[in-house]
Design brief:
By secondary structure, the chain is of the alpha/beta class. It contains 17 helices and eight strands.
Length: 433
């Protein structure tokens, strides 16, 4: 099946593709939960909360489960068709690089450009000097709407930031040009991911990055900086929530300034990666959306896979047995599974129950340990994080796992929809007035 990509020169140019004010990144690793996820967005719409779904999947995830980029598009379109969704939706080539982008050109319309490998690669001194000579205004005191304190960037700080990020911006530009050549200008959404680095970017650094992206002609619609604190997979934010809120609000103000001063897309907004289950900072995000009347993109990804396991366990019988087997295999291969995600998980080995113990658990006990309910005494964040990175185990089950997803669809879908709507959409996004 072919998907539309580059435009026919004889046809009138399509309208530029714009990302809506509120959007949610949803992962569906085994392409079975599109309808359940979309039902959550439809429930939000009935409540006046307009959130656009963006189905995202990375090249690494495709490789692990044996899927192809086109599978995500087909699953999304099937869900949209079957439920009669009339709003926009997108398919995100998540964390793609120049080496992996080609496989996503046909089926995606949203691209998260991953330039992590280029962050910190030093730019040439002459290039840094040229950048600062071109933008002396960034060294002036900058008043930011919505904030009490102005932004001040010293020359030394600007030189350091440009030296650290200009090469990464050039890499983003190269990936962007590759996509543009295939799909046409304005026919896709561009996100730039700067979050996979050791240190968080402060608002002053974000401004330098945005100015550099504007110089490079990258029409970024959403940008993912690294915030202070830990954004571990599938569990709550770890860190100072007040500091996060201050950074968030400053970043939003910086984006608004950059849009006005550097002709960046007027819908440019923040993207919060590993955003699922960060309950303690959702109030801060919601307050900022209301106060600044701005947008946000939140990526949730693996929380849906965990709801599949919860639904299997809730179904009992063979579903529970399969969920218990997945844990046993994850426990046996915990070091191998955890290694690629070491920077975004904190698993306490002593808190992981023995597989023999889990094999005796009831449906209620298994789901209580896995479901993200901090008030439940049986909730086990270490078990949850291990299972979050263990989807490879389910992929190795092949037809057996997929068959059980079909057999237990009712319980799984109920959990997927409730988790996305009740614990995410409803808490993060206010109704648009």
């Amino acid at each position: 099946m072919a998907f539309s990509s580059s435009s026919d020169p004889l046809k009138p140019a399509a309208a530029p593709l714009r990302l809506a004010q509120y959007s949610i990144g949803v992962g569906d690793r085994f392409a079975h939960q599109g309808k359940a996820q979309l039902r959550a967005c439809m429930q939000a719409a009935r409540d006046g909360i307009a959130v656009v779904p963006v189905w995202n999947k990375s090249n690494r995830e495709h490789a692990i489960v044996g899927s192809k980029p086109g599978d995500v598009r087909r699953a999304a379109e099937a869900a949209v068709r079957e439920l009669g969704w009339t709003g926009p939706f997108h398919v995100d080539a998540d964390h793609i690089t120049l080496a992996t982008v080609t496989g996503f050109l046909e089926s995606s319309d949203y691209y998260t450009l991953d330039v992590a490998s280029a962050i910190g690669r030093p730019a040439q001194e002459a290039e840094v000097a040229e950048f600062l000579a071109r933008h002396p205004e960034i060294l002036q005191t900058i008043a930011l709407a919505g904030l009490d304190a102005p932004l001040r960037i010293t020359r030394a700080a600007a030189e350091q930031t440009a030296g650290k990020y200009l090469v990464a911006v050039h890499e983003a530009s190269r990936i962007y040009r590759c996509i543009e050549a295939a799909k046409g200008k304005g026919q896709f959404i561009t996100e730039v991911s700067m979050d996979e680095t050791d240190a968080p970017q402060m608002p002053a650094e974000l401004l330098v990055i945005l100015v550099a992206l504007a110089d490079a002609g990258v029409p970024v619609q959403t940008i993912a900086p690294k915030f202070t604190g830990r954004f571990n997979k599938g569990v709550d934010y770890v860190g100072d929530a007040a500091q996060f809120e201050a950074e968030l609000r400053s970043d939003i103000a910086v984006i608004a300034h950059a849009v006005r001063a550097y002709a960046l897309p007027d819908n440019l907004k923040l993207s919060v990666h590993s955003g699922s289950d960060k309950f303690s900072i959702y109030p801060a995000i919601r307050r900022a959306l209301l106060d600044f009347r701005c947008g946000v993109h939140v990526k949730t990804a693996g929380t849906t896979w965990l709801e599949e396991l919860i639904g299997l366990a809730e179904a009992g019988g063979e579903g529970l047995e399969l969920a218990q087997e997945v844990y046993a295999q994850a426990f046996a291969h915990r070091e191998e599974l955890s290694a690629p995600y070491a920077s975004v998980i904190d698993i306490e080995a002593a808190r992981l129950p023995a597989p023999e113990q889990v094999a005796r658990w009831s449906s209620a006990r298994y789901t209580a340990a896995l479901r993200h309910d901090p008030q439940c005494p049986d909730f086990n964040p270490s078990l949850r994080q291990l299972l979050h990175v263990a989807y490879k185990i389910a992929g190795q089950q092949g037809a057996r796992y997929l068959g059980m997803l079909d057999a237990c669809e009712e319980t799984i879908a109920r959990n997927v929809t409730a988790n996305l709507y009740e614990r995410h959409l409803k808490l993060i996004f206010p109704a648009l007035s």
